[in-house]
Amino acid sequence: MDTTLQMNSLGRLVALLVAVAAWTGCRGVPAERADLLIVGATIVTMDAEHQVFPDGALAIRGDRIAALGPRAELERRYTAARRLDASGRLLLPGLINAHTHAPMTLLRGLADDRALQDWLENYIFPAEARHVNEEFVLWGTRLAALEMLRGGTTTFVDMYYFEEQVAQAAEQAGLRAVLGQTIIGFPAPDHKSVAEALAYTEAFLQRWQGHPRIRAAVAPHALYTNSAETLRASAELARRYRAPILIHLAETRHEQQAVRREHGLSPVGYLDRLGLLGADLLAAHCVWVDAADIALLRLRDAGCVHNPSSNMKLASGTAPVVEMLAAGLRLGLGTDGPAGSNNDLNLFEEMDLAAKLQKVTRLDPQALTARQALELATLGGARALHWEAEIGSLEAGKQADLILLRTDRPHAVPAFDVYSQIVYALKASDVEAVWVGGRQVVHQGRVLTLDEPQVLARARQLAARVAASRSAH
Ligand SMILES: [Zn+2]
Description:
By secondary structure, this protein is α/β, with parallel strands linked by helices. The protein has a domain at 94-395: TIM Barrel, CATH 3.20.20.140. Helices cover 43% and strands 22% of the residues. The strands form 4 sheets. The protein has a 7-stranded mixed β-sheet with strand order 3-2-7-16-17-18-19, with helices on one face. It has a 4-stranded mixed β-sheet with strand order 5-4-1-6, covered by helices on one side. A 4-stranded parallel β-sheet has the order 8-9-10-11. Helix 14 crosses helix 15. The longest helix has 26 residues, at 2-27. It is globular. Mean pLDDT is 94; it is low at 1-5 and 20-26. Zinc ion binds at residues 99, 101, 248, 284, 336-337. Residues 99, 101, 248, 284, 336-337 line the site of zinc ion (ZN).
């Protein structure tokens, strides 16, 4: 009797479960799972078709974008552990600062309004010799990381000394980075000789091999600060570890004329003769390049970085960005260092200036559009790094490097064109949230990975030492 009763109850339970399953099946309960579903934002993908989804949704699983598209479609497909309503906001790929010197935040404004050679030789190199050590670099990079993350930068490309400390700070901050240990042909803060610099760099390359976010690189500073032998040795070391090579190239007329006088070639041509020009090389500035140089850079598939603030502030000239893009060159955007060539790490400002500098130089308002300027700071930077399969645009399968921008402040209202709004009106301070590799690192405009008051206090202390020694001299 009891057994029959139990069987009947069990039978009813099974029938009920089958009925529930059938009902939910009809209702189309989402089959796919996401860790985070961001809904309601206008998604600016920067993919090849320049797709924009006005009421979009984006699903993150692990460190990657699982899917994105119209909100209704994604809500049918996905159940998510967390859901974020981002209505009224813009969701963009994280910005890529393709050339900077992050620790130089601590020398911000030390010597402004001077020519590059005067600024370097009489102010920056001496200050660095006295003050730059591991502690300086660690805290300077933390300060830079706060500024970059709050301004929507998710990837930065760096060239400095004690790059090991830059890597540790970037790793802690949760940033993605390509970090070039500087090799320079005279005694520097972290090496007395080129041999020492190469040994330090090799150990640095070994330590960071295989890291998912940090790529160690070799950064021979420039043609005018290194011998041919040092440049070749730097490239040989980089290629042994399949590491990128970072260099300043054709920045000033002075450099272009000196290289031509000494070697009978343009800086680009000379670099090629030395065997350095290749797909693994990223050249900052490229201001003084002609049609033949652009063709050669394209032929070798090298990357270039445009630095409009720096080129304007140091009066270096205007890079032929229009010609570079027309030639299909891999071109990104960078702030350059915050010490005297910018003086901040703000890619919103840089995009705005990139567009306007081409327009005014060429007397053509169509020379570089807002959308092209945004592309320089996103997919362009990724292409310059040969990293476009992973970052630079919002596409399913790519790394979840994204930024969320608020659009409710007076300077953002109204908006007729999303690219114009982003490049000409929005500010770095409109960045509300940031994710790098699926991990949220900025929330409500605050960096989650660093202690901001502590970093600012240490930065002021270290800068006070620089100021004290300056007044003592
Ligand atoms: Zn630089």
